Amino acid sequence: MDAATRTLTAAAFADRYTLPKYRLRVINGPDAGLEKIFDRRLVYVGSAPDNDFVLDDPSVSRNHLKIDGERGGYRIRDLDSKNGTWFAGARLSEAILGSPSLLRLGQTELQFEQLPELHEVALAREPNFGHLLGQSPEMREIFALLARVAPADSTVLVQGESGTGKELVAEALHHHSKRHQKPFVVFDCSAIQRDLVESELFGHVKGSFTGAIATRKGAFAEAHGGTLFLDEIGELDMDLQPKLLRVLEKREIKPVGSNERQAVDVRIIAATNRDLSQMVRDGTFREDLYYRLAVITVQLPALRRRRGDIPPLVNHFLQDVVARNGLGRSLTVSFDTMQQLQNHSWPGNVRELRNHIERAAVLSDGQQLQVQWSPLGANAAEPVSEQALAADFDLPFKDAKARLIDAFERHYWQRALDRAQWNVSAAARATGLHRKSLEYLIRKLDLQRDEPASRSP
Question: What span, in angstroms and rounded, lies between the C-alpha atoms of 15 and 30?
Answer without folding.
Answer: 40
